[in-house]
Specification:
2 domains, seven-stranded mixed β-sheet
Amino acid sequence: MDELVLRPLADADSLEAITALLHRAYAPLAAMGLNYTAVDQTVAMTRERVLGGQCYVLARGAQVVGTITVNGPFDPQRHAWARATPWYFRTDVAHIHQFAIEPALRGQRLGERLFAACEAWARAQGHRAIALDTAVPAHHLRALYGRWGFADVDEVQWDGKHYRSVVMVKPLQPGTPPGLDDAEHHCAVVRTLWTRVQARDWAGMRALYAADAVTHWPCSGEWFLDGDAIVRANAAYPEGWTITLQAVDALADGRVHAVVRVDHPPGVFFCNARYRLNGGPTGPVIAEAVEHWATAEAPPAWRTAEAVGAYRREPV
C-alpha cells in the first residue's frame, strides 16, 4: 500500500473528490443537526475556499484522504462574512478551514500532520497566532483542538448557521500572545466596525460601542452622545452609498486611525477618523470617536502644474 504523503494541493487533484471527502467527513456533524458549510458545499465553493489560501492534502497515490486550508488575514472589503469577530480581521492571525480526514482513517493522528503544516506556513508568513472556529455543541472537536493548544477567545453567530460557534486561537510566536487589549486587536475592531456599517448590520455596529460612547463630527459641528444615537445617525442616512475602508493604523497614543471612502452618487466623501477604545464585557468597545467628513471635489482651475511646479492631479 502506498505511503501517505503530505503536500500542497496540486493542479491534478480532483476538487470533485475533495468535495466528496468533505461531505463524508462532515456527515456525522450533519447528523447532529450542525449545518457546517462543508456538509453540503458545492465544488465551486471548494474551489473558492482553496484558492483563498494554502490548501494541503494527505494523499495515497492519487487518492486524497485528508485536506485542510490555511488563510492569512481576511480582507474587510472581500470577506464581509468575517465581520462576526474581530479575530478574523487581525493582520497577525492566520485561519484554518475545511479540515477533513477520511472517516475510515480516523484515530491515526493524521489531523495533527495537517495542522502542523498549517502552523509551519503561518509561522513562515510571520503570523503570531492561528485561529479556527467550530460549533459550540461539537464538544469532541473543541476538546481535540484544546489538546492541540487552541483556546476559546470569542463566540459568534455566523449567518445561516443553526448553531453558535466558538473561535479558538493558538499562539505561534514566543512572547506575549495576541490579546483583546493589544493595538492590533483595537485596529481589528475598527475594521469590523466599518464592515458592519457597509453590511447595514446595525445591531452588530451597536455592539462595538460603549453605552456612553461619544462621536464628534467637527466638520459639521455635531456631537452624538451615546452609542444608540451614533448608530441611529448612520442607519438613517439616505441609501445608495458604498464604503471602502482604505487604511486602519494604530497611533502612538493608543488610539486607532482610519481612512474611509464613501461613494454616494453623484458624490464622494472621505472620513478621516480617530477612535479610542476601552475594555468591555466581551472585548474592547469604542468609547470615543472624532470623524472628519469631507466631500471630494475638483481643485480650483488656477491650481495647475504651470502655476505650482511639481504637481499632478488624479481622478477621485
